Amino acid sequence: MSSLNQPSAERATQHEKTLEEPATSYTSSTTSITYGTTTNLESNIPVQDASSDDDIKPEADVDELPPDGGWNAWLQALMAHLVIINTWGTINSFGIFQTFYRGYLSRAASDISWIGSMQVFFLFVVGVFTGRLTDAGYFRVVFAVGSALVVIGSLTASFATEYWQLFLSQGVCVGLGMGGLFCPVMAVLSTYFKQRRNLAIGIAISGSATGGMVYPIMARQLLPKLGFGWTMRTMALVQFVTLLVANIFMRARLRPRRAGPLIEISAFKERPYLLFTIGMFFNFWGVYFAFY
User: Fold this and answer.
1) Which of 66, 174, 229, 279 is least surrounded, with the fewest CB atoms within 10 Å of its CB?
2) How many CB atoms lie within 10 A of CB 243?
3) pLDDT digits over 121-166, tens only?
């Protein structure tokens, strides 16, 4: 009986294992299916990683696309023309003062030339700092201060009777004001154009010819009739009106760039730019002999 019962017991045990195996297999396959389904579903869900953020153009980049035309852009070119009238146009007009001051001040031509030379010097040197301030978002402040210095310098020069007074007012004060106008205005104007940038800058720079004609004609006509004081005050009034209009309508377009060095030293690692800078440095050594 024990031998007969033993196979029966073994068969019962095997039968129980057989019943358990499908359940185990089913559970395992279910787990596999569950994991597989989860994996497939997750793979079908678009996941935005950090690297994909670079493919999406931020709003600032969209704003940086220049309009390259339109009423507002060409208005900026016209306003820049008015500004250049009162910077390079004034510098181009200094020849008539050079002749007048020799008799008015009884000074040598080499002494008088320092007045006009200081205007050019400060126009470029101050531009190193005002250009960076413009990038940082202070264009309105820099532009307003520069305009005020130009007008104040010309106005105070009208009361000058000594050489040092003209040197400080017409040379230093006006020169500092020009440094707050020229570089920032040209930088802002360039952001409005791409394909037509050369034309826009040409319109602006032609203000040097406009000022070079208007101010000498004014001085030549007014000096004999009104005298030096009122001639300078009349020119200061013209500067005030034109620069006021430019302050009202000229606007920086790009968002401020607070971070960054004062001077991009890395730019000089580019050979074309470095050679261009060196060439322009020596070029300007000889340009202004004709002026002074």
Assistant:
1) 279
2) 25
3) 999 999 989 988 998 999 999 999 999 999 999 999 999 999 999 9
Q: What is the CATH number of the domain that holds 71?
A: 1.20.1250.20
In angstroms, what CA-CA distances link 132 with 28, 120, 266?
Answer: 68, 19, 15
* Cβ atoms 134, 185 nearer than 8 A: no
* 3-state secondary structure at position 235: helix
Listed residue (163, 25, 24, 186) closest to 107, CA to CA: 163
Q: Is residue 19 part of a domain?
A: no
- Beta carbons of 109 and 98 less than 8 angstroms apart: yes
* Closest to 147 in 3D by CA, of 79, 77, 247: 247
230 assigned to some structural domain: yes
Sign of CA dihedral 11, 12, 17, 19: positive
> How confident is the model over 255-276, as a mean pLDDT?
84
pLDDT digits (tens, 9 = 90+) for 200-255: 999 999 999 999 999 999 999 999 999 999 999 999 999 999 999 999 999 999 88
| Tokens encoding 290 | 């004709």
Q: Which domain holds residue 213?
A: 66-263
Would you say residue 279 lies in a domain? no
DSSP conformational letter for 5: H
Whether residue 100 lies inside any domain: the answer is: yes
Give me the number of domains the chain comprises: 1
